[in-house]
Design goal:
By secondary structure, this protein is α+β, with helices and mostly antiparallel strands. It has 10 helices and 10 strands. Helices cover 51% and strands 15% of the residues. Strands 1-4-5-8 form a 4-stranded mixed sheet. Helix 6 runs antiparallel to helix 7, helix 8 runs antiparallel to helix 9 and helix 8 runs antiparallel to helix 10. The longest helix has 37 residues. Bound molecules: coenzyme a persulfide.
Length: 386
């Protein structure tokens, strides 16, 4: 067992940290306050190869491994979780499923502009009536000449407003209810209309919108086989959840960093609060839980990179890291006391940002369900496609 990062992994981690400290962290509070998607930032990330970290070089990516990508998400989210989710959805939920399930033609056509950051990607599964019960989606794709007529609406779509490429799910078999009749498609910006932008508790530098779709697509837009879309969605989420776990980890690390420094400076009863056991124990718990989450997250990423089953490991990583982030960002506010509750310090933002990691890409309840099915052998962990 080797716990050390490779030279390449350390290099990409360092490079991302440097960029995040210079270009993201100093602006994060303003982006949050102004609810601004920092569109100009993504060109800079692209220049460093961070919009396609684990995409092969011949398709426009940086050619690094999945753990490197996870390290990038952790570092970005440590500075601004909204930036973290935009890169996470773009990569794990749009670029990677096209890479894994697309034809050669689709890969060559859609992946390079995404990996080079010329286009931003999104993932459109959720609808008003189908969140956790993803198989209940109602958007239809009805045969229409050489392709399909797609009609419906999608809700809570990250980056809806800025994305140019959407991995999109619709029901092609209208006779079948549930997961079986769903197919996956690759849509462009002009296929969708953004009908609403959500106002959220946090993650204000990312965008979340509602889509209306009333469009024809040709056959070449079908991703993988007809009727196999639910499997594409599940496999995508298996990897995506490791990314959200890394986002949660980055947020918790940021909260810990602030709380630790504050505790060394702030004085009460004649000494630094870090010298009071009440604060020491909080910091010790934070550090321990962050370490535990990091081990789960990196292990899940490593399993995925090895081509090993990672459904259960990814669900465990997301479950623990996200709940840990909510717990520990709250603890950070407690350590800072009244200051923690103000916008003078970033910990209140971390607390607001952390909560969503327990909800999107599968709630904590869904992660427990996935883990329970796996440990009770109610559902066999699916073989990983080549
Ligand atoms: N990988 C590959 N295939 C999978 C899979 C996985 N991880 N999980 C399930 N499947 C397959 C099953 O093998 C089954 O295939 P067959 O029809 O060939 O037997 C099919 O998908 C249906 O599976 P299942 O019966 O388990 O579906 P359920 O409707 O019970 O739903 C859950 C399963 C709850 C796990 C799923 O709906 C889910 O993940 N929900 C949360 C959705 C989510 O995360 N949304 C966030 C969107 S992004 S913000």
């Amino acid at each position: 067992m080797d716990f050390s990062l490779t030279g390449d992994q350390r290099e990409i981690q360092g490079l991302t940290r440097e960029l995040a400290q210079a270009e993201i962290e100093p602006n994060a509070a303003a982006w949050d306050r102004e609810r601004r998607f920092p569109v100009e930032l993504y060109g800079k990330l692209a220049e460093l190869g961070l919009m396609g970290v684990c995409v092969p070089e011949e398709l426009g990516g940086a050619g690094a491994d999945f753990l490197s990508y996870i390290l990038v998400l952790e570092e970005l989210s440590r500075a601004d979780a909204g930036v973290g989710v935009t890169v996470a959805v773009h990569t794990s939920a749009c670029t990677l499923p096209i890479l894994a399930f697309g034809t050669d033609e689709q890969r060559e056509r859609f992946v390079p502009p995404l990996a080079r950051g010329e286009k931003i990607g999104a993932f459109a599964l959720t609808e008003t009536g189908s969140g956790s019960d993803a198989g209940a989606l109602r958007t239809t794709a009805v045969p229409d000449g050489e392709g399909w007529r797609i009609s419906g609406t999608k809700q809570f779509i990250s980056t809806a407003e800025q994305a140019s490429t959407f991995v999109f799910f619709a029901r092609t078999d209208l006779e079948t209810d549930g997961a079986r009749g769903v197919s996956a498609f690759i849509l462009d910006r002009e296929h969708v209309e953004v009908t609403r932008e959500e106002e959220k508790l946090g993650l204000n530098s990312s965008s979340t919108g509602e889509l209306r779709i009333e469009t024809h697509v040709d056959r070449d837009r079908l991703l993988h086989e007809e009727g196999k879309g639910f499997m594409v969605a599940m496999r995508t989420l298996d990897g995506g959840r490791i990314g959200i776990a890394a986002q949660a980890l980055g947020i918790a690390q940021a909260a810990y960093d602030v709380a630790r420094e504050y505790a060394k400076e702030r004085r009460t009863f004649g000494k630094a609060i870090a010298e009071h056991q009440a604060i020491q124990f909080k910091l010790a718990d934070m550090s321990t839980e962050i370490d535990a989450a990091r081990l789960l997250v990196y292990r899940a990423a490593w399993l995925k990179e090895q081509g090993e089953p990672h459904t259960e490991a990814g669900a465990k990583a997301k479950l623990f890291a996200s709940e840990m982030a909510t717990r520990q960002t709250s603890a950070a506010i407690q350590i800072l006391g009244g200051y923690g509750y103000t916008k003078e310090f970033p910990v209140e933002r971390y607390y607001r940002d952390a909560k969503i990691t327990e909800i999107y890409e599968g709630t904590s309840e869904i992660q427990r369900l996935v883990i329970a099915r796996s440990i009770l052998e109610l559902q066999r962990e699916p073989a990983v496609p080549a």
